[in-house]
Amino acid sequence: MSWSEVPWLQRNSPTASLVRLCERILQSDDLAAIIVDIAAEFGVSNCLLAVRSGDWKIVAARGDWDGPLPSSQLDSCIDREAAVYQRGRPTGGTILTPTGSRDQHMLLLSGARLAADQLADALAIARVLGRRLDQLGVLHAAHRQVDRLKATMKLARKFAGETETQRLLEHIATDAARLLGSDRASIFIWDREQRQLVACPALGVEGGRLFLPDNKGLVGDVIHSRKPVIVDDVYADPRFDQGVDKKSGYKTRNLLCVPLFDANDECLGAFELINKRSGDFSAEDLGALEDFAIAVATAVTNTRELENLVRNNSQLSEQMKRRSNIIGESPAMAALRGTIDRLAMTDLPVLILGESGTGKEVAATALHHQGSRAQRPFVAVNCAALTETLLESELFGHEKGAFTDAHAMHIGKFELAEGGTLFLDEIGDMTLGGQAKLLRVLEQKVITRVGGTQPIPVNVRVVAATNAHLAEMVREKKFRQDLYFRLSVVTLEIPPLRDRPEDILPLSKFFLERFCRDANRKLLTFSPDAEKRLQMHQWPGNVRELRNLMERIAFLAQGARVEVDDLAFILSPKRSDFDDLADGVGLMEATSSFQSEYIKRAVKRMQGNMSDAAEFLGLHRSNLYRKMRQLGMEVDDVKP
């Protein structure tokens, strides 16, 4: 454009000085200098350039402007696309004229010598200025886009060999927020299985983690619609979920969000920027964020930590709840804690033995969280639930097309547990074929996905557990001897709860406190009779049975204290107390045998307290001792 393209200048004969001013405006990049030149041309002391961005803001100015800008008059001029001259005293006149720029700039002139006949000249100069502002805007946008593209390429080169997805995503989010001038940034990975969005990272959020349902909010709308959104006022948008703001105390004003796609056009998640520091997000910002989104999607799909990342975040809360909670005051539990402390910092394979429900997975979790692998994944596999056909795919993964239903690549548990711990529960139920494949991986520390040829090194600590008698299974050729020796470098045995009655009350109180918190009710306490009833129960389901009972009590108990009546339903079916008696004994001998065993059990349940045992049996303490003498029992025979 040249100055001669302005209609008013075409119809009139501008002065030479006005022509020179137009030429300087079209050649200059310095808005401050342009404003000074305009003020000089019109002989005014005050000249100002303002832009409408929500409220009116000053872009460049010469002179002193007192008070706020006349927003309503500026709005009227912009809306009517008309210039206005106003006579004022004692300072002279004022001209307000729109520039016609895309960003809606206004030129304001004020001075004692300003007259109404200068209105047409002012409007012409404003139009030239508006055209130059549009040129500068395009030029600056191009420069910014080049700078952002360079930054994206630099970031891609810098982290091309990065294997830690989390670290890479943090750098991309930080650079995107900085270059696009936003206050916060979040990269959401879509965990379809858990139906949630996992922000990793969520810059500006305490802890750097954020979990959202995948069907709520603007981010949920983006991943399901597969379309980007720009929202200038989020609180006016019904799709916006205000829950995060209410919880954090942070106020979201505007946002920009784009979907992430992999090479197969599958949606991986979304990239979100919050609160543009100056004005609103633009189409230019959208294009730049989409460039960054390509880098994010590439980073996610090119690293084997994608499913590990999702799993780590989705299970973080649950892992923290159960982390290292080995509760108990018995010598057996004290010894177990000490052994775990010594083993945690090693990579030795560990075999955990114990009846169902004794807490084998809790012990495995403690081994993981107290060791050097604590920041890496803990992945549990129930071997009893896997057929030999499924075992290899589940543990080692499979490639797309490896078999009929293999519609996509599947990452196995060994890869998901990379750097961390793989817990193989119920290892005794694994088939002999599965045992052979597992042994090979444990010895070579390399896996190959089903249908693949590429060997994948793995760095995983293996902890196994079973309620079966593996040594006996080895003798019966039901379990491989070489795998048994490989797994049982160190063996931990967790005794059943009935053999450690001193742990019953500590465990009961621990679980009851947790579940009362979950039930959002005041902590319940046990009556003395209820405590004795808990101690007398055999607990055939071990700690799991106790845990389930405390959960039911926390949600269903009516009073503020747990009474014996609240425990009535713990009388679960169990074997007859007469099963241990030999066949063919006389009635007197059977009666004495039963009474002896019953007294031993009562004293053991009361942790050796003879007074409590006597009270439970409905006897005076002296009568209990007399009965024991009649049965030929010594006190030392019954104390634990």
From TrEMBL:
- From what superkingdom does this record's organism come? Bacteria
Keywords assigned by UniProt? ATP-binding, DNA-binding, Nucleotide-binding, Transcription, Transcription regulation
One Pfam family from the record: Sigma54_activat
Show the SMART domains listed in the entry.
AAA, GAF
> Which residue ranges run through the membrane?
none
Where the record annotates domain Sigma-54 factor interaction, the positions are 326-555
Please give the InterPro entries that the UniProt record associates with this protein.
AAA+_ATPase, AAA_lid_NorR, GAF, GAF-like_dom_sf, Homeodomain-like_sf, HTH_Fis, P-loop_NTPase, Sigma_54_int
User: What GO molecular function annotations does the UniProt record carry, in alphabetical order?
Assistant: ATP binding; sequence-specific DNA binding
Q: Name one GO biological process term.
A: regulation of DNA-templated transcription
Q: What protein name is recorded for this chain?
A: Nif-specific regulatory protein
Q: From what organism does this protein derive? A: Planctomicrobium piriforme
Q: What is the lineage of its organism?
A: Bacteria, Pseudomonadati, Planctomycetota, Planctomycetia, Planctomycetales
